[in-house]
Specification:
Length: 303
């Protein structure tokens, strides 16, 4: 009888290092939002990849940065919590940015948090630099920390990702699978739907607003024809933000709703009827309930 394997792999790195892109590449489905904005991953989203007889459960932690607000502090605490609980840690570094002060701070913290957990270095976006620079960066980073393995990849284009997945499949411990074979994420569909809408909001709104809003799936109705009706509320922190999210004559929210509905329907493989409302909730950034919905601990944000 073939021995199965299963384990958790934490993806850590600076904001925008490509963690969500790598997660989606490994899992083969979109389970974590990917945008050009930093700090978009709030919850510790788990994506599940099957490789041979191994089940690899990815924990996509929020990007680690210097926290200022309560939400930021909770996100950073969640990131290190995800690393501490993992069987393998992957540190993502952007090839063209190299060993930044932020990356050095993460490496310093790894010495405290990693313990005996294997840590692999994953240099991402290798298509942006020349091979000589890649080699020099790899040597510099391996001199800064004793990495178990080094991988050079492009999460966006897929270069090197198969080798990384093969290695992880052998690295996770022997044991029964943790989830059904056909499951790609342990998030409920209500939260995945909210994340998809939040991604579209983030892409459309280029100002500070994306970090001052959240999306909640208020109702989910399964219809007899196989479609789903999804009602969501976009909460903004200030009255002035509501008009920006709605847009002139409701144009902005309509475009966001269409984009979110199309992606959600593709993800689920069936028709979706999506209805969005925008409401002002000035103190949502200080409400424990919102943090619980994002998989964050409200108390971790205490200064």
């Amino acid at each position: 009888m073939t021995q199965t394997r299963a384990g958790f792999v934490a993806l850590i790195g600076e904001p925008n290092a490509g963690k969500s892109t790598l997660l989606n590449r490994m899992v083969g489905a979109k389970v974590s939002i990917v945008t050009h904005k930093v700090q978009t991953t709030r919850a510790r989203i788990r994506g599940i990849a099957m490789q041979g007889d191994s089940q690899i459960v990815f924990v996509d932690t929020p990007g680690i940065f210097r926290p200022r607000r309560r939400l930021d502090r909770s996100m950073v605490k969640a990131a290190w919590g995800g690393a501490a609980d993992a069987d393998v840690i992957l540190l993502l570094i952007e090839a063209h940015r190299g060993l930044t002060d932020g990356a050095q701070a993460i490496i310093d913290n790894l010495r405290q948090h990693a313990g005996q957990t294997p840590v692999a270095l994953v240099i991402n976006k290798i298509d942006r630099v020349k091979s000589e620079a890649l080699l020099a960066l790899s040597q510099q980073l391996n001199a800064a920390f004793d990495f178990t393995r080094t991988f050079m990849i492009s999460a966006e284009k897929g270069y090197g990702c198969d080798d990384l997945l093969d290695w992880l499949a052998q690295e996770v411990p022997e044991g029964p699978w943790l989830y059904p074979e056909d499951q790609v994420a342990d998030l409920p569909m209500r939260m995945i739907a909210a994340e998809i809408t939040r991604e579209k909001l983030t892409l459309r709104l280029h100002e500070e607003i994306p970090y001052q809003l959240t999306v909640e799936t208020e109702k989910w109705e399964e219809r007899k024809d196989g479609s789903a009706r999804v009602d969501q509320i976009v909460y903004v922190a200030r009255p002035g933000h509501k008009g920006i999210v709605l847009g002139k004559g409701g144009e902005t929210i309509k475009a966001i709703g269409q984009a979110a509905r199309a992606e959600l329907a593709e993800f689920m493989g069936r028709p979706v009827h999506l209805f969005l409302q925008v409401k002002v909730r000035e103190n949502w950034l200080d409400e424990a309930e919102r943090y619980n919905e994002m998989g964050l601990d409200f108390r971790d944000g205490d200064a």
